[in-house]
């Protein structure tokens, strides 16, 4: 699944999940808390100038010395307010039971048409309170509040109709009386109230972020005017003692009720949560708030709260889920992600707040949660992908592949069809593609390669990218091992057709190593992968573009090679190399005519390592170039010092071995010339040994280079002659001075007549072509005598001396000079054969 699909899926899932939680009411408390917070952020509109509260305070209670207050006291208050020309008076104090004295007087006051009293409808739990009998219905309003599950009053319950009876709230009655002279009347439709032309749509049970709240009757969300001062307040005693400015009362809606906390007529509002002392507001204050809302809506055109339909809320949540997912998908850096996350949530809060100032209540917490949960989901998926899949090719990575492999191993132990194969693929010369055509092309190539691989394998196996240009394939339930081989064949064939990248054709080949499981063995997945890798390495070694099946023993061989390669690089830096010199002797007079320089590597842990082992690696890795230059310089400077120390005629010579790689170096001739100049040697003293197989590999170029070298008067010799199948037709074209008979012929000379015949033929042939002959590997006096009889000019071998370090070789030359025919100490030489 792509990350894009994941983002969409995760956003849908998280939206669905949170919708479910929300539907069950799981988010309501939090959403309401957010609502309250937004309410508190709104500006305080201050006291409503149309309203006045006559509050019964603790002081009033103390002065009156009586609770409930007597009917007489209340009647006096009403009289005073009427006298001050209050427009409407609301008495938020129950008077269904008489509290003498003054009942008659109170009833008279209450019957005045601008006075409204309360009743309580009650609910399933509480019994209501009946109104005072005998009063006209338009002077009675219910004082019931609807309280949210968290105890906070957020809704203004205005009106209800139960099929028989109509119920007006206290606030509605007061408002209608206040607005009567403006001709505002109440009209009721199934979904809204109309006060004059102003529409009060009744909220549904899931308006805004409510869920299944009791939406009985007609309710609107309260737009609180002020935390405390919804209207001016005066105390009861101030009224009774006429200690008030009549202008405070004139033409106003005056609500009378208790504000003394001790009477416990308290309700929670959105402001309550932040108030430490007396968090509630009194009932009369709340009623004043409700009246204020109704009046403001009609008179001041203050809007009512509005909500989105359910589908818009779902869409809103989903959009934020998508944003969260996309952010995680697009942003890699944790800091960038953190900043973007905080920024997005701030934007969300900002949008909700600014809509709230326009009286829109849209979900805040649910989109924040879908945003966060989707982000977490996508992040987890991404981490999981990173941990188990390759980001470039989307194939399983090494660690996931090892898990598949482990599962295959476990299955193979249970099932009947239990053979499986592991193919390890490596792209030949991928490094060249990458370095010469840029890494971008390299990446595109890998993608195309993996696609071709997938289409080739199909559902036959599992493919993984286990390294830069390394892929592994697991083929399970194979009936015979040849199946794996045929798959390898197919793959190799498929990969020969070129890859087109950026209009460029790229040709490649692959090397494959195959390992099969062995039921009797306790396999570890890593071991199997290593075995297949070993076999692949061997396939590469044997010429690339082929496959090899793993066999026991391959591993140690490969490991040693790898180790040598790393050690070799270090050895050059640490100067662990030095030269040994093996004398070449004239068979005629047994005098030393020269030496062959032989390279030695003293490994700090493993001691001496044979050049037979490390020269091929040095050639493969290109290390032979710097190494060869060092050899040439060291051998030449040694010869130069010997020539001045032991002058003789002809002068001593030095044979230096040249590898195939060195021979194809374009600046070889110039370089040798420089070395000769630097050491003051004559070209005739230096002999380069080129093995027959190297010379025969590319005859024409070899001849060209040889001719160039000959311009420096350098001597040339064909080394290991007889082992390289050189055709006689070529031999005469090689401008060489010497043939070195391979020591295998020399050593068998005494044993078989054939070998003796070969040696004789080589000597005759070289003489015919004007070359002289050195016999390698002379170990006995018999061999020496035989060679002498055949007319061979020179001999080299343990019979004369093992290769010696420079000190021992100097000693040997000295003894020859003084005429003492001292035998060289055999212990000085080091035998690598
Ligand atoms: P090569 O050029 O044929 O060198 C002769 C090898 O035969 C040397 O082995 C030498 O120690 C060994 N040898 C000499 N006399 C006898 C004998 O009487 N009996 C036996 N059994 N062996 C004898 P070494 O030094 O191990 O060198 C092996 C090969 O490594 C050389 O074969 C040469 O191909 C390569 N090599 C050595 N030094 C260099 C070098 O400086 N550059 C290059 N390119 N290759 C080198
Ligand atoms: Ca040699
Ligand atoms: Ca040789």
Short structural description:
With 833 residues, this protein is an alpha/beta fold. A hairpin with a 5-residue loop joins strand 24 and strand 25.
The percent of residues in helical segments reads 40-55%
> Tell me about the biggest sheet?
8 strands, mixed, barrel
Small-molecule components bound:
ligand C2E, calcium ion
> Over all CA atoms, what is the radius of gyration?
53 Å
Strand order, sheet with most strands: 24-25-27-28-29-30-31-32
Number of strands: 32
Structural class by helix and strand composition: alpha/beta
How would you describe the overall organization of this protein?
- The protein folds into 4 domains: 3-24 and 307-387; 45-299, no CATH class; 389-550, Reverse transcriptase/Diguanylate cyclase domain (Alpha-Beta Plaits), CATH 3.30.70.270; 578-818, EAL domain (TIM Barrel, Alpha-Beta Barrel), CATH 3.20.20.
- It is built from 28 helices and 32 strands.
- Residues 820-833 have low confidence and may be disordered.
- One calcium ion binds at residues 719-720, 740, 776.
